[in-house]
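Journal club side-thread
Mid-discussion, someone asked how the predicted structure for our own chain would compare to the paper's figures. Pasting it here so we can look after the session.
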Amino acid sequence: MFALRALRRRHGRHGRADRTTAFADQVKSELTDELPDEDLGQDLEDCLAVYELGSKPRCEEVEYLELVQEAIDRIDRGR
C-alpha cells in the first residue's frame, strides 16, 4: 500500500511538471507564430533582459515587448 501511494505521488509530480512544460512550449509556439521574424530562444525573460530599447520602430517595439511579457505572464499563471 505504501509503495503504491509513493508511486502515485511520484507519477503525479512528473505529470504536473510535464503539463507545465507542455503549456510553456505551447505559449512559446504561439508567440513564435505571432513574431515569426524574431529569434526568441528558450527563455523569454532573457529576451526582455537583452533587448535593446530603440532597436525597432516604436510601434513594433511596443508590440514585441507587450507580446513577450504577456507570454511570460501566461506561463506564470499556467493558463
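Post-session note: Residues 1-8 have pLDDT under 50 and may be disordered.
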